[in-house]
User: Which sequence fits this backbone?
């Protein structure tokens, strides 16, 4: 069965429907390293809540009051203080290995999870099942 056939299968579509924050991102085509991704996103209303969310999932990060030499997302304010955040994108949250991307734009304070487990380019049904279990843990911990 090809990946396209898997994504159209009843089993895969039904499992994906159970997800609350995860979705299947299709490749846009023509982009280097572009493939299917299972992405989930937690959105927060401000920088303080973003930091609380990162702490709740156990993300490893450092805050800087001055722009560091390494790459960081755009700075954001927490209680009137500007911060740059440095973080490791490979993360283990509640026992689930994932990659995260932190959004610090004023319209998008967020933590995005990538749940692809076996390939950067393909999603398998087990990834969706892991995402469903992960969401249940987020709910039980009051994060989602």
Assistant:
């Amino acid at each position: 069965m090809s990946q396209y056939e898997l994504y159209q299968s009843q089993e895969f579509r039904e499992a994906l429907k159970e997800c609350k924050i995860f979705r299947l991102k299709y490749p846009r085509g023509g982009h280097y390293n572009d493939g299917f991704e299972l992405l989930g996103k937690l959105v927060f209303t401000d920088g303080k809540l973003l930091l609380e969310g990162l702490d709740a999932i156990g993300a490893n990060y450092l805050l800087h009051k001055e722009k560091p030499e390494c790459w960081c997302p755009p700075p954001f304010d927490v209680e009137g203080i500007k911060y740059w955040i440095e973080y490791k994108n490979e993360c283990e949250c509640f026992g689930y290995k994932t990659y995260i991307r932190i959004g610090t734009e004023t319209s998008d304070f967020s933590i995005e999870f990538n749940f692809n487990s076996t390939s950067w380019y393909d999603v398998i049904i087990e990834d969706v099942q892991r995402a469903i279990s992960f969401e249940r843990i987020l709910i039980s911990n009051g994060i989602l």
